[in-house]
C-alpha cells in the first residue's frame, strides 16, 4: 500500500506549511489512512486501556487497530501480557468479545488451546513430529505506565518510552490506578479523520462557544488566550488564573505531588505533555458542580482539592486525573473518515455506586463534551472534502499544541517513509 501513495505523500510532506492545518488528502485519502495505520499506529506506543480493564487472572481485553487484533490478558502470576489475537494453526481469531474471562485461550475453530502465557498446550491430530513449542501465540510489546497500558505492534518499539515513564510515573502513581476500577466505557464513532479528533483535543479555542459543561470546571485560560483581544476584566481574570497555577502548583509540589508543565510533544518519538492545573469554583473535580463525584478518594489522598493532572501522548491519547476519579481517552482510526473515541472512567475500587458516587455525575461533563466534540469533528471533515478547502492558520495563542501534534505527525512520517 505504501508504494501507491509514496511519491504524492512525500510531496505533501515537503510542502507542509508550519503553523497551518494539513492539506485535505491527509484527512480524506484512504491511502494516507493506510499509511497512518502502517507507520504511525504500527510503529509507536499506542495507548489502549488501563490495568483495571483486566483485574483478575484470566481476564482478557481485545483491542483492534486496523487489520490487527490484540488481546491483553492477566496471567496467573498477575502480570499483564499482550498477544496477537490470531491462532497459530490457520489464523482464526481466538477471542471475539471486547472483554471476557477464560481459563485458557481456546480457538473455537479447531480447539487449539493456549495458556495465559501464550504457550500452546493442546493441539489434536498434529503427529509425533509436531513441536508445540514453536507455535505459541505471537507476543505484542506491552508497557504499563503506572497502570496505563500501551502496546507497540513493531518488532522494534521506540526506546524512549522509558524516558517518558521516568518523568511521568511520579505524576501518575499517586492516583493509584491499580486500585481503581472502570465504572463506565463510552465508544463514540466520530465522523472524521483521526487527526481531526486529535487536533480538536489539542486546543480549547472552541471551548467557550461549544462546551458549556466543560467550561464550568476548566479555565479557558489554561489553554492559552490572546492578550490583545481581551478586555481589562478578562485580563485580570487571566492574571488571577496564572497566579493560581503558580501558587497551587508550588503547594502541590511541596506536598509531593508533581505538577509542573513538561512539554515534549514534538521533540521526542514518544511525544507527551503533562501539567496539573487548577479547577474552577470549588476546585475539586471535573464535574458540573466542581465538587468530587466520588467520596472515596484515590490512593492515599486526603485533600480533595488537587486540581486536574492532564497527560497527553502522541499519537492517540489524553487523560485527566483528579483526587476522586480518572478519565482516559484513546483514539483509533476506523477508516479515512471515521474514528473511534474510547473513553473510560475510573474510581477507587472500593467505591460503591449509589453510596460513594453517582454514575451520571462522574461521567456527565465528558459525555456531553465528547458528543459536542464529535459534532465539531464532523463539521471539519465535511469542510476538508470541499474543493474550497485550503490549509488555514493556527492561532499562535490558543492552538500551539495542535501545531505540535501536526509537527510530530509530519516528522514521524518523514522519518519512517522509505527513502
TrEMBL record:
<dbReference type="InterPro" id="IPR017941">
    <property type="entry name" value="Rieske_2Fe-2S"/>
</dbReference>
<dbReference type="Pfam" id="PF00848">
    <property type="entry name" value="Ring_hydroxyl_A"/>
</dbReference>
<keyword id="KW-0560">Oxidoreductase</keyword>
<protein>
    <submittedName>
        <fullName>Aromatic ring-hydroxylating dioxygenase subunit alpha</fullName>
    </submittedName>
</protein>
<dbReference type="GO" id="GO:0051213">
    <property type="term" value="F:dioxygenase activity"/>
</dbReference>
<dbReference type="GO" id="GO:0051537">
    <property type="term" value="F:2 iron, 2 sulfur cluster binding"/>
</dbReference>
<feature type="domain" description="Rieske">
    <location>
        <begin position="47"/>
        <end position="151"/>
    </location>
</feature>
<dbReference type="Pfam" id="PF00355">
    <property type="entry name" value="Rieske"/>
</dbReference>
<keyword id="KW-0408">Iron</keyword>
<dbReference type="InterPro" id="IPR015879">
    <property type="entry name" value="Ring_hydroxy_dOase_asu_C_dom"/>
</dbReference>
<dbReference type="InterPro" id="IPR001663">
    <property type="entry name" value="Rng_hydr_dOase-A"/>
</dbReference>
<keyword id="KW-0411">Iron-sulfur</keyword>
<keyword id="KW-0001">2Fe-2S</keyword>
<dbReference type="GO" id="GO:0005506">
    <property type="term" value="F:iron ion binding"/>
</dbReference>
<dbReference type="InterPro" id="IPR036922">
    <property type="entry name" value="Rieske_2Fe-2S_sf"/>
</dbReference>
<keyword id="KW-0479">Metal-binding</keyword>
<keyword id="KW-0223">Dioxygenase</keyword>
Amino acid at each position: 500500500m505504501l508504494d501507491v501513495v509514496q511519491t504524492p505523500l512525500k510531496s505533501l510532506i515537503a510542502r507542509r506549511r508550519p503553523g497551518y492545518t494539513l492539506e485535505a488528502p491527509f484527512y480524506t485519502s484512504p491511502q494516507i489512512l493506510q499509511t497512518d495505520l502502517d507507520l504511525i499506529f504500527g510503529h509507536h506506543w499506542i495507548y489502549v486501556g488501563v490495568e483495571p480493564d483486566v483485574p483478575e487472572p484470566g481476564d482478557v481485553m481485545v483491542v483492534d487497530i486496523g487489520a490487527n487484533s490484540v488481546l491483553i490478558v492477566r496471567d496467573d502470576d498477575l502480570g499483564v501480557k499482550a498477544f496477537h489475537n490470531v491462532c497459530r494453526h490457520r489464523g482464526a481469531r481466538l477471542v471475539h468479545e471486547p472483554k471476557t474471562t477464560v481459563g485458557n485461550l481456546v480457538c473455537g475453530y479447531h480447539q487449539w488451546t493456549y495458556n495465559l502465557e501464550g504457550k500452546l498446550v493442546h493441539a489434536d491430530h498434529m503427529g509425533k513430529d509436531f513441536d508445540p513449542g514453536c507455535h505459541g501465540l505471537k507476543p505484542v510489546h506491552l508497557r504499563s505506565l503506572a497502570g496505563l497500558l500501551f502496546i507497540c505492534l513493531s518488532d522494534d518499539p521506540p526506546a524512549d518510552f522509558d524516558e517518558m515513564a521516568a518523568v511521568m510515573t511520579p505524576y501518575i502513581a499517586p492516583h493509584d490506578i491499580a486500585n481503581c476500577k472502570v465504572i463506565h466505557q463510552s465508544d463514540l464513532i466520530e465522523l472524521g479523520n483521526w487527526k481531526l479528533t486529535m487536533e480538536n483535543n489539542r486546543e480549547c479555542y472552541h471551548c467557550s462557544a461549544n462546551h458549556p459543561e466543560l467550561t464550568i470546571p476548566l479555565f479557558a485560560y489554561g489553554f492559552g488566550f490572546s492578550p490583545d483581544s481581551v478586555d481589562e476584566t478578562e485580563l485580570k481574570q487571566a492574571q488571577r488564573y496564572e497566579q493560581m497555577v503558580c501558587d497551587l502548583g508550588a503547594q502541590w509540589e511541596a506536598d509531593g505531588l508533581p505538577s509542573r508543565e513538561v512539554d515534549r510533544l514534538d521533540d521526542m518519538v514518544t511525544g507527551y505533555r503533562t501539567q496539573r492545573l487548577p479547577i474552577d469554583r470549588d476546585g475539586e473535580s471535573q464535574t458540573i458542580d466542581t465538587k468530587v463525584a466520588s467520596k472515596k478518594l484515590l490512593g492515599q489522598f486526603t485533600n480533595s482539592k488537587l486540581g486536574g493532572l492532564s497527560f497527553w501522548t502522541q499519537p492517540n491519547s489524553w487523560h485527566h486525573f483528579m483526587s476522586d476519579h480518572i478519565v482516559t481517552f484513546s483514539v483509533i482510526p476506523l477508516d479515512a473518515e471515521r474514528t473511534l473515541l474510547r473513553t473510560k472512567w475510573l474510581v477507587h475500587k472500593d467505591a460503591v455506586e449509589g453510596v460513594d458516587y453517582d454514575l451520571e455525575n462522574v461521567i456527565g461533563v465528558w459525555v456531553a463534551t465528547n458528543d459536542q466534540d464529535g459534532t465539531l469533528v464532523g463539521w471539519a471533515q465535511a469542510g476538508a472534502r470541499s474543493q474550497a478547502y485550503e490549509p488555514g492558520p493556527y492561532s499562535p495563542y490558543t492552538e500551539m499544541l495542535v501545531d505540535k501534534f501536526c509537527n510530530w505527525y509530519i516528522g514521524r512520517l518523514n522519518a519512517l517513509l522509505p527513502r
